[in-house]
Amino acid sequence: MTLRNRAAIAGVGQTLYSKNSGKTELRLACEAILAALSDAGLTPDDVDGLVRFDMDNIDDTALTSHLGFRNLGWMSQTGYGGTGGNAVIAHAAAAIAGGLAKVVVCFRALNERSGVRYGQAKQATSAGGVLAFQNPWGMLTPAHKFAHFARRHMVEFGTTSRQFGEVAVALRRHASRNPLAMMQKPISLEDHQASRMIADPLRLFDCCIESDGACAIVVTSAEHAKDLKQPRVLIAGAAQGSGSRAQGIVFRDDLARPESTHTAADVYRMAGLGPQDVDAVMIYDHFTPFVIMSLEAYGFCPVGEGGRFVEGGRIHFDGELPVNTHGGNHSEAYIHGLPHVVEATRQLRGTSTSQVNNAEVVLSCSSVAQLSAAVLLTKG
Amino acid sequence: MLRGMPAPVVDFDTQPFWDGVASEKLLVPHCKACGTGRWPPGPVCDKCWSTETEWKNTVGPGRLYSWVVTTHATHPALTSQVPYVVVLVEFDDKVRILGNLVNWDGETLVDGQELHVVFEEREDGTKIYNFRT
Ligand SMILES: [Zn+2]
Asked: How close does chain A come to B74, measured CA to CA in Å?
Protein backbone atom coordinates (compact mmCIF):
# COMPACT_ATOMS: atom_id res chain seq x y z
CA MET A 1 0.00 0.00 0.00
CA THR A 2 1.20 3.50 -0.71
CA LEU A 3 -0.14 6.91 0.20
CA ARG A 4 0.52 8.21 -3.31
CA ASN A 5 -2.38 10.40 -4.42
CA ARG A 6 -4.80 8.88 -1.92
CA ALA A 7 -5.37 12.15 -0.05
CA ALA A 8 -5.54 15.81 -0.97
CA ILE A 9 -5.38 19.24 0.60
CA ALA A 10 -8.84 20.75 0.28
CA GLY A 11 -8.61 23.86 2.42
CA VAL A 12 -6.10 26.23 3.99
CA GLY A 13 -6.58 29.07 6.44
CA GLN A 14 -4.65 31.40 8.66
CA THR A 15 -5.07 34.31 11.02
CA LEU A 16 -3.25 37.61 10.77
CA TYR A 17 0.38 37.21 11.77
CA SER A 18 1.69 39.72 14.31
CA LYS A 19 3.99 40.47 17.22
CA ASN A 20 1.08 40.62 19.62
CA SER A 21 -2.21 39.04 18.64
CA GLY A 22 -4.03 40.21 21.77
CA LYS A 23 -5.95 36.93 21.56
CA THR A 24 -5.67 33.51 23.14
CA GLU A 25 -4.00 30.70 21.24
CA LEU A 26 -7.35 28.89 21.43
CA ARG A 27 -9.06 31.79 19.66
CA LEU A 28 -6.33 31.90 17.01
CA ALA A 29 -6.65 28.16 16.37
CA CYS A 30 -10.44 28.40 16.03
CA GLU A 31 -10.16 31.29 13.56
CA ALA A 32 -7.60 29.46 11.41
CA ILE A 33 -9.53 26.16 11.43
CA LEU A 34 -12.84 27.85 10.53
CA ALA A 35 -11.07 29.72 7.73
CA ALA A 36 -9.58 26.49 6.36
CA LEU A 37 -12.93 24.68 6.51
CA SER A 38 -14.69 27.57 4.84
CA ASP A 39 -11.99 27.62 2.13
CA ALA A 40 -12.82 23.96 1.45
CA GLY A 41 -16.58 24.55 1.59
CA LEU A 42 -16.90 22.39 4.73
CA THR A 43 -18.07 22.92 8.32
CA PRO A 44 -17.00 21.49 11.69
CA ASP A 45 -19.75 18.88 11.26
CA ASP A 46 -17.73 17.34 8.44
CA VAL A 47 -14.57 16.93 10.53
CA ASP A 48 -13.77 13.47 11.88
CA GLY A 49 -9.99 13.72 12.32
CA LEU A 50 -7.59 16.10 14.07
CA VAL A 51 -3.79 16.31 14.10
CA ARG A 52 -1.92 18.60 16.49
CA PHE A 53 1.74 19.49 16.99
CA ASP A 54 3.18 17.97 20.16
CA MET A 55 4.47 21.42 21.12
CA ASP A 56 1.05 23.09 20.83
CA ASN A 57 -0.24 24.47 24.14
CA ILE A 58 -3.94 24.20 23.39
CA ASP A 59 -6.08 21.74 25.31
CA ASP A 60 -7.64 19.76 22.48
CA THR A 61 -10.84 19.15 24.42
CA ALA A 62 -11.26 22.94 24.62
CA LEU A 63 -10.68 23.22 20.90
CA THR A 64 -13.07 20.45 19.92
CA SER A 65 -15.71 21.66 22.42
CA HIS A 66 -15.72 25.24 21.17
CA LEU A 67 -15.65 24.23 17.52
CA GLY A 68 -18.46 21.75 18.16
CA PHE A 69 -16.64 18.79 16.61
CA ARG A 70 -19.39 16.21 17.09
CA ASN A 71 -18.05 13.56 14.74
CA LEU A 72 -14.42 13.34 15.75
CA GLY A 73 -13.22 9.74 15.49
CA TRP A 74 -9.45 9.93 15.07
CA MET A 75 -6.77 12.07 16.70
CA SER A 76 -3.01 12.21 16.42
CA GLN A 77 -0.04 14.40 17.21
CA THR A 78 3.40 14.79 15.71
CA GLY A 79 6.87 15.62 16.93
CA TYR A 80 9.34 17.12 16.64
CA GLY A 81 9.28 20.92 16.65
CA GLY A 82 9.26 22.35 13.16
CA THR A 83 9.12 19.00 11.42
CA GLY A 84 5.47 19.05 12.49
CA GLY A 85 4.49 21.33 9.60
CA ASN A 86 4.95 18.49 7.15
CA ALA A 87 4.46 15.61 9.57
CA VAL A 88 0.85 16.63 10.35
CA ILE A 89 0.06 16.29 6.63
CA ALA A 90 1.72 12.86 6.53
CA HIS A 91 -0.39 11.71 9.50
CA ALA A 92 -3.59 13.06 7.98
CA ALA A 93 -2.90 11.40 4.62
CA ALA A 94 -2.16 8.08 6.36
CA ALA A 95 -5.41 8.26 8.34
CA ILE A 96 -7.39 8.91 5.17
CA ALA A 97 -5.66 6.19 3.16
CA GLY A 98 -6.18 3.78 6.08
CA GLY A 99 -9.88 4.57 6.34
CA LEU A 100 -9.60 6.00 9.86
CA ALA A 101 -10.96 9.43 8.92
CA LYS A 102 -12.57 11.26 6.03
CA VAL A 103 -11.88 14.93 6.79
CA VAL A 104 -8.82 15.75 8.90
CA VAL A 105 -7.93 19.16 10.31
CA CYS A 106 -4.24 19.95 10.98
CA PHE A 107 -3.41 23.11 12.91
CA ARG A 108 -0.76 25.08 14.78
CA ALA A 109 -1.43 28.13 16.94
CA LEU A 110 1.05 30.09 18.99
CA ASN A 111 1.58 33.38 20.73
CA GLU A 112 5.29 32.82 20.42
CA ARG A 113 6.29 36.49 20.20
CA SER A 114 4.03 37.97 22.88
CA GLY A 115 4.19 34.82 25.03
CA VAL A 116 7.11 32.47 25.65
CA ARG A 117 9.75 33.39 23.08
CA TYR A 118 11.88 30.55 21.75
CA GLY A 119 14.72 33.01 21.22
CA GLN A 120 14.98 33.82 24.92
CA ALA A 121 16.19 31.44 27.58
CA LYS A 122 13.93 30.13 30.30
CA GLN A 123 15.28 31.29 33.64
CA ALA A 124 15.56 27.80 35.08
CA THR A 125 17.88 27.14 38.01
CA SER A 126 18.53 23.55 37.01
CA ALA A 127 18.79 21.51 33.82
CA GLY A 128 18.00 17.80 33.57
CA GLY A 129 18.35 15.16 30.86
CA VAL A 130 20.42 16.20 27.88
CA LEU A 131 20.16 19.87 28.93
CA ALA A 132 22.46 19.04 31.89
CA PHE A 133 25.17 18.71 29.23
CA GLN A 134 24.31 21.99 27.44
CA ASN A 135 22.63 24.67 29.56
CA PRO A 136 25.37 25.15 32.19
CA TRP A 137 27.72 26.36 29.40
CA GLY A 138 25.27 28.92 28.03
CA MET A 139 23.81 26.79 25.24
CA LEU A 140 20.26 27.90 25.86
CA THR A 141 18.36 28.78 22.69
CA PRO A 142 17.85 27.26 19.25
CA ALA A 143 20.37 29.70 17.69
CA HIS A 144 23.07 28.44 20.07
CA LYS A 145 22.51 24.88 18.88
CA PHE A 146 21.86 25.31 15.19
CA ALA A 147 24.85 27.64 14.77
CA HIS A 148 27.07 24.54 15.12
CA PHE A 149 25.58 23.16 11.89
CA ALA A 150 26.37 26.42 10.12
CA ARG A 151 29.93 26.24 11.48
CA ARG A 152 30.51 22.69 10.26
CA HIS A 153 29.12 23.49 6.81
CA MET A 154 31.53 26.42 6.60
CA VAL A 155 34.48 24.31 7.84
CA GLU A 156 33.85 21.35 5.57
CA PHE A 157 32.70 23.06 2.39
CA GLY A 158 33.88 26.67 2.58
CA THR A 159 30.32 28.01 2.75
CA THR A 160 30.27 31.73 3.59
CA SER A 161 28.13 34.10 5.61
CA ARG A 162 27.38 35.99 2.36
CA GLN A 163 25.87 32.78 0.99
CA PHE A 164 23.61 32.58 4.05
CA GLY A 165 22.80 36.19 3.17
CA GLU A 166 21.69 35.19 -0.34
CA VAL A 167 18.99 33.09 1.31
CA ALA A 168 17.91 35.95 3.59
CA VAL A 169 17.66 38.40 0.67
CA ALA A 170 15.51 36.00 -1.39
CA LEU A 171 13.14 35.23 1.48
CA ARG A 172 12.70 38.90 2.34
CA ARG A 173 12.04 39.75 -1.30
CA HIS A 174 9.25 37.18 -1.34
CA ALA A 175 7.83 38.51 1.92
CA SER A 176 7.84 42.05 0.53
CA ARG A 177 5.37 40.83 -2.11
CA ASN A 178 3.14 39.00 0.41
CA PRO A 179 0.62 41.22 2.26
CA LEU A 180 0.38 38.63 5.09
CA ALA A 181 4.10 38.78 5.82
CA MET A 182 5.34 40.47 8.98
CA MET A 183 8.62 41.67 7.45
CA GLN A 184 7.96 43.72 4.34
CA LYS A 185 11.08 45.82 3.86
CA PRO A 186 13.50 44.35 1.31
CA ILE A 187 17.09 43.79 2.45
CA SER A 188 20.38 43.66 0.56
CA LEU A 189 23.39 41.39 1.02
CA GLU A 190 25.11 44.35 2.66
CA ASP A 191 22.23 44.70 5.14
CA HIS A 192 22.65 41.03 5.98
CA GLN A 193 26.40 41.40 6.47
CA ALA A 194 25.83 44.47 8.65
CA SER A 195 23.25 42.76 10.85
CA ARG A 196 24.58 42.00 14.32
CA MET A 197 26.00 38.66 15.33
CA ILE A 198 23.70 36.56 17.50
CA ALA A 199 25.68 33.35 17.78
CA ASP A 200 28.63 33.55 15.40
CA PRO A 201 28.39 32.41 12.59
CA LEU A 202 24.64 33.24 12.75
CA ARG A 203 23.71 36.90 12.30
CA LEU A 204 20.35 38.47 13.14
CA PHE A 205 19.23 38.14 9.51
CA ASP A 206 20.04 34.43 9.53
CA CYS A 207 17.43 33.83 12.22
CA CYS A 208 13.70 33.43 11.69
CA ILE A 209 11.30 35.88 13.27
CA GLU A 210 9.04 35.25 16.27
CA SER A 211 5.31 35.53 15.72
CA ASP A 212 1.79 35.25 17.03
CA GLY A 213 -0.75 33.54 14.82
CA ALA A 214 -2.25 30.28 13.65
CA CYS A 215 -2.80 28.34 10.52
CA ALA A 216 -4.78 25.27 9.58
CA ILE A 217 -5.05 22.79 6.73
CA VAL A 218 -7.92 20.47 5.78
CA VAL A 219 -6.99 17.09 4.28
CA THR A 220 -9.51 14.74 2.73
CA SER A 221 -9.54 11.88 0.23
CA ALA A 222 -8.49 12.60 -3.34
CA GLU A 223 -12.00 11.59 -4.45
CA HIS A 224 -13.84 13.78 -1.95
CA ALA A 225 -11.59 16.75 -2.74
CA LYS A 226 -12.77 16.69 -6.37
CA ASP A 227 -16.26 17.75 -5.25
CA LEU A 228 -15.15 20.56 -2.94
CA LYS A 229 -14.82 24.29 -3.45
CA GLN A 230 -11.12 24.62 -4.35
CA PRO A 231 -8.93 22.97 -6.96
CA ARG A 232 -7.54 19.95 -5.14
CA VAL A 233 -3.86 19.58 -4.29
CA LEU A 234 -2.78 15.93 -4.24
CA ILE A 235 -0.47 14.52 -1.60
CA ALA A 236 1.83 12.46 -3.81
CA GLY A 237 4.30 11.54 -1.10
CA ALA A 238 4.84 12.01 2.63
CA ALA A 239 7.64 10.90 4.96
CA GLN A 240 9.13 11.40 8.40
CA GLY A 241 12.57 10.55 9.68
CA SER A 242 14.67 10.41 12.81
CA GLY A 243 18.43 10.12 12.60
CA SER A 244 20.77 8.38 15.00
CA ARG A 245 21.70 10.23 18.19
CA ALA A 246 18.91 12.74 17.77
CA GLN A 247 18.95 13.75 21.42
CA GLY A 248 20.15 17.26 22.16
CA ILE A 249 20.47 18.36 18.51
CA VAL A 250 24.26 18.89 18.55
CA PHE A 251 25.31 15.40 19.59
CA ARG A 252 24.48 13.75 16.28
CA ASP A 253 27.43 12.30 14.35
CA ASP A 254 27.46 14.72 11.43
CA LEU A 255 26.55 18.37 11.91
CA ALA A 256 27.14 19.41 8.29
CA ARG A 257 24.39 17.12 7.02
CA PRO A 258 21.17 17.42 8.99
CA GLU A 259 18.89 14.41 9.06
CA SER A 260 16.74 14.04 5.93
CA THR A 261 18.59 11.65 3.66
CA HIS A 262 16.15 8.82 4.18
CA THR A 263 13.14 11.14 4.34
CA ALA A 264 14.16 12.53 0.94
CA ALA A 265 14.52 9.03 -0.55
CA ASP A 266 11.19 7.93 0.95
CA VAL A 267 9.16 10.92 -0.21
CA TYR A 268 10.50 10.79 -3.77
CA ARG A 269 10.02 7.03 -4.02
CA MET A 270 6.46 7.18 -2.73
CA ALA A 271 5.57 9.94 -5.18
CA GLY A 272 7.46 8.39 -8.09
CA LEU A 273 9.07 11.79 -8.58
CA GLY A 274 12.57 13.24 -8.25
CA PRO A 275 14.16 16.62 -7.65
CA GLN A 276 14.18 17.26 -11.42
CA ASP A 277 10.35 17.27 -11.35
CA VAL A 278 10.04 19.88 -8.59
CA ASP A 279 8.93 23.39 -9.60
CA ALA A 280 9.27 25.09 -6.20
CA VAL A 281 10.45 24.14 -2.71
CA MET A 282 9.21 25.23 0.71
CA ILE A 283 12.00 24.65 3.23
CA TYR A 284 11.76 24.94 7.01
CA ASP A 285 13.99 27.98 7.47
CA HIS A 286 14.51 28.35 11.20
CA PHE A 287 18.00 29.52 10.23
CA THR A 288 19.23 30.37 6.72
CA PRO A 289 21.98 27.67 6.56
CA PHE A 290 19.28 25.00 6.75
CA VAL A 291 17.91 26.15 3.39
CA ILE A 292 21.33 25.43 1.91
CA MET A 293 21.67 22.07 3.66
CA SER A 294 18.10 21.02 2.73
CA LEU A 295 18.69 21.82 -0.96
CA GLU A 296 21.62 19.39 -0.77
CA ALA A 297 19.71 16.72 1.15
CA TYR A 298 16.79 16.75 -1.29
CA GLY A 299 19.07 16.38 -4.29
CA PHE A 300 18.89 19.85 -5.87
CA CYS A 301 22.69 20.12 -5.77
CA PRO A 302 25.55 17.93 -4.55
CA VAL A 303 26.35 17.96 -0.82
CA GLY A 304 28.70 20.84 -0.13
CA GLU A 305 27.62 22.95 -3.10
CA GLY A 306 24.49 24.48 -1.56
CA GLY A 307 26.26 27.74 -0.76
CA ARG A 308 27.15 28.36 -4.39
CA PHE A 309 23.74 27.05 -5.51
CA VAL A 310 21.81 29.82 -3.74
CA GLU A 311 23.88 32.62 -5.33
CA GLY A 312 22.79 34.73 -8.25
CA GLY A 313 19.06 34.76 -7.57
CA ARG A 314 18.54 31.05 -8.30
CA ILE A 315 16.12 30.56 -5.37
CA HIS A 316 14.08 33.74 -6.03
CA PHE A 317 10.51 33.24 -7.26
CA ASP A 318 11.62 34.23 -10.75
CA GLY A 319 14.76 32.07 -10.57
CA GLU A 320 15.54 28.50 -11.55
CA LEU A 321 14.36 26.91 -8.29
CA PRO A 322 12.03 29.17 -6.27
CA VAL A 323 12.26 28.63 -2.50
CA ASN A 324 9.80 29.86 0.16
CA THR A 325 7.82 32.15 -2.08
CA HIS A 326 5.81 33.35 0.94
CA GLY A 327 8.91 34.56 2.80
CA GLY A 328 9.17 31.58 5.14
CA ASN A 329 9.81 31.53 8.87
CA HIS A 330 12.42 34.15 8.11
CA SER A 331 10.11 36.91 6.90
CA GLU A 332 6.45 35.88 6.63
CA ALA A 333 5.77 34.44 10.10
CA TYR A 334 6.99 31.72 12.40
CA ILE A 335 4.06 29.35 12.78
CA HIS A 336 6.32 26.35 13.11
CA GLY A 337 6.44 25.53 9.41
CA LEU A 338 2.76 24.97 8.71
CA PRO A 339 2.53 28.13 6.51
CA HIS A 340 5.03 26.41 4.19
CA VAL A 341 2.36 23.85 3.30
CA VAL A 342 -0.21 26.64 2.92
CA GLU A 343 2.11 28.36 0.44
CA ALA A 344 2.82 25.10 -1.43
CA THR A 345 -0.96 24.80 -1.80
CA ARG A 346 -1.26 28.37 -3.06
CA GLN A 347 1.44 27.73 -5.65
CA LEU A 348 -0.44 24.69 -6.97
CA ARG A 349 -3.72 26.62 -7.03
CA GLY A 350 -1.98 29.48 -8.84
CA THR A 351 -2.73 32.00 -6.09
CA SER A 352 0.69 32.81 -4.58
CA THR A 353 1.71 36.46 -4.41
CA SER A 354 5.00 35.31 -5.95
CA GLN A 355 3.50 32.80 -8.33
CA VAL A 356 5.80 30.38 -10.15
CA ASN A 357 4.80 29.84 -13.78
CA ASN A 358 3.12 26.48 -14.38
CA ALA A 359 3.83 25.11 -10.91
CA GLU A 360 2.77 21.46 -10.90
CA VAL A 361 4.99 19.82 -8.29
CA VAL A 362 5.98 21.46 -4.99
CA LEU A 363 8.14 19.92 -2.27
CA SER A 364 7.73 21.02 1.34
CA CYS A 365 10.44 19.75 3.66
CA SER A 366 11.71 20.34 7.15
CA SER A 367 15.03 19.27 8.60
CA VAL A 368 15.25 20.53 12.13
CA ALA A 369 18.76 19.01 12.29
CA GLN A 370 18.16 15.62 13.84
CA LEU A 371 14.59 14.93 12.71
CA SER A 372 12.82 15.55 9.45
CA ALA A 373 9.58 15.39 7.49
CA ALA A 374 8.54 16.12 3.93
CA VAL A 375 5.54 16.13 1.62
CA LEU A 376 5.41 16.24 -2.16
CA LEU A 377 2.32 17.97 -3.47
CA THR A 378 1.01 18.03 -7.02
CA LYS A 379 -1.66 19.88 -8.94
CA GLY A 380 -4.87 17.82 -8.87
CA MET B 1 33.10 29.56 33.98
CA LEU B 2 29.77 31.19 33.15
CA ARG B 3 27.90 32.50 36.18
CA GLY B 4 24.15 32.26 36.75
CA MET B 5 23.55 29.29 34.47
CA PRO B 6 21.24 26.38 35.38
CA ALA B 7 22.94 23.66 37.44
CA PRO B 8 23.11 20.13 35.99
CA VAL B 9 20.60 17.69 37.47
CA VAL B 10 22.18 14.34 38.37
CA ASP B 11 20.16 11.18 37.70
CA PHE B 12 20.61 7.40 37.74
CA ASP B 13 22.24 7.32 34.31
CA THR B 14 24.61 10.22 34.94
CA GLN B 15 25.57 9.84 38.63
CA PRO B 16 28.95 8.12 37.98
CA PHE B 17 29.88 10.84 35.48
CA TRP B 18 29.16 13.70 37.90
CA ASP B 19 30.88 11.83 40.74
CA GLY B 20 33.92 11.77 38.45
CA VAL B 21 33.67 15.50 37.77
CA ALA B 22 33.60 16.13 41.53
CA SER B 23 37.03 14.49 41.74
CA GLU B 24 38.23 16.26 38.56
CA LYS B 25 37.92 13.29 36.24
CA LEU B 26 35.99 13.06 32.97
CA LEU B 27 34.54 9.55 33.25
CA VAL B 28 32.93 8.94 29.86
CA PRO B 29 30.57 5.96 29.64
CA HIS B 30 31.56 3.21 27.24
CA CYS B 31 29.78 -0.02 26.41
CA LYS B 32 31.31 -2.92 28.33
CA ALA B 33 30.31 -5.34 25.57
CA CYS B 34 31.48 -3.56 22.40
CA GLY B 35 33.43 -0.51 23.60
CA THR B 36 31.26 2.14 21.91
CA GLY B 37 31.41 5.55 23.60
CA ARG B 38 28.09 7.01 24.72
CA TRP B 39 27.31 10.74 24.90
CA PRO B 40 25.39 12.09 26.65
CA PRO B 41 25.43 9.33 29.26
CA GLY B 42 22.42 7.04 28.91
CA PRO B 43 21.06 3.63 29.82
CA VAL B 44 21.85 1.56 26.70
CA CYS B 45 24.54 1.14 24.03
CA ASP B 46 23.11 2.36 20.70
CA LYS B 47 25.24 -0.15 18.76
CA CYS B 48 24.71 -3.47 20.59
CA TRP B 49 21.99 -2.56 23.15
CA SER B 50 23.96 -3.73 26.15
CA THR B 51 23.16 -1.91 29.39
CA GLU B 52 26.59 -2.71 30.87
CA THR B 53 28.68 0.44 31.24
CA GLU B 54 32.36 1.07 31.84
CA TRP B 55 33.29 4.58 33.00
CA LYS B 56 36.61 5.42 31.30
CA ASN B 57 38.72 8.34 32.44
CA THR B 58 39.14 10.60 29.43
CA VAL B 59 42.20 12.80 29.79
CA GLY B 60 42.53 14.22 26.29
CA PRO B 61 43.63 16.39 24.76
CA GLY B 62 40.61 16.49 22.47
CA ARG B 63 40.23 18.10 19.05
CA LEU B 64 38.00 21.06 18.27
CA TYR B 65 35.01 19.93 16.16
CA SER B 66 32.82 23.04 16.27
CA TRP B 67 32.64 26.42 17.95
CA VAL B 68 30.01 29.14 18.33
CA VAL B 69 30.69 32.59 19.73
CA THR B 70 27.61 33.93 21.46
CA THR B 71 27.51 37.71 21.35
CA HIS B 72 23.81 38.28 22.07
CA ALA B 73 22.75 37.65 25.68
CA THR B 74 19.57 35.55 25.79
CA HIS B 75 19.49 35.33 29.60
CA PRO B 76 19.88 38.19 32.10
CA ALA B 77 22.83 36.46 33.77
CA LEU B 78 24.73 36.51 30.48
CA THR B 79 24.50 40.26 29.80
CA SER B 80 27.89 40.95 31.42
CA GLN B 81 29.44 37.71 30.18
CA VAL B 82 29.08 37.88 26.39
CA PRO B 83 30.90 37.05 24.24
CA TYR B 84 31.54 33.48 25.28
CA VAL B 85 32.54 30.46 23.22
CA VAL B 86 30.80 27.08 23.25
CA VAL B 87 32.98 24.32 21.79
CA LEU B 88 32.28 20.73 20.81
CA VAL B 89 35.42 18.73 21.49
CA GLU B 90 36.01 15.29 20.02
CA PHE B 91 38.00 12.62 21.82
CA ASP B 92 39.67 9.48 20.46
CA ASP B 93 36.57 7.38 21.09
CA LYS B 94 34.54 9.77 18.85
CA VAL B 95 32.62 11.10 21.83
CA ARG B 96 32.05 14.86 21.51
CA ILE B 97 31.71 16.83 24.71
CA LEU B 98 30.45 20.39 24.96
CA GLY B 99 31.93 23.11 27.14
CA ASN B 100 33.23 26.67 27.17
CA LEU B 101 36.63 27.70 25.91
CA VAL B 102 37.80 29.43 29.07
CA ASN B 103 40.87 31.25 27.73
CA TRP B 104 39.51 32.54 24.42
CA ASP B 105 40.91 35.98 23.64
CA GLY B 106 39.25 36.63 20.33
CA GLU B 107 41.76 34.69 18.21
CA THR B 108 40.65 32.59 15.28
CA LEU B 109 39.89 28.99 16.12
CA VAL B 110 40.81 26.17 13.77
CA ASP B 111 39.02 22.91 13.03
CA GLY B 112 40.83 20.02 14.74
CA GLN B 113 43.03 22.12 17.04
CA GLU B 114 43.97 20.50 20.36
CA LEU B 115 42.02 21.51 23.46
CA HIS B 116 42.69 20.48 27.05
CA VAL B 117 40.19 19.60 29.76
CA VAL B 118 40.10 21.89 32.82
CA PHE B 119 37.99 21.78 35.96
CA GLU B 120 36.50 24.83 37.66
CA GLU B 121 34.25 25.54 40.60
CA ARG B 122 30.67 26.73 40.12
CA GLU B 123 29.09 29.39 42.38
CA ASP B 124 27.45 26.60 44.40
CA GLY B 125 30.81 24.97 45.09
CA THR B 126 30.26 22.01 42.74
CA LYS B 127 32.81 21.24 40.02
CA ILE B 128 32.29 21.68 36.31
CA TYR B 129 34.49 20.78 33.33
CA ASN B 130 35.64 23.12 30.59
CA PHE B 131 38.31 23.46 27.91
CA ARG B 132 41.37 25.61 27.22
CA THR B 133 43.76 25.93 24.31
ZN1 LIG C 1 27.75 -1.90 22.77
From this structure: 5
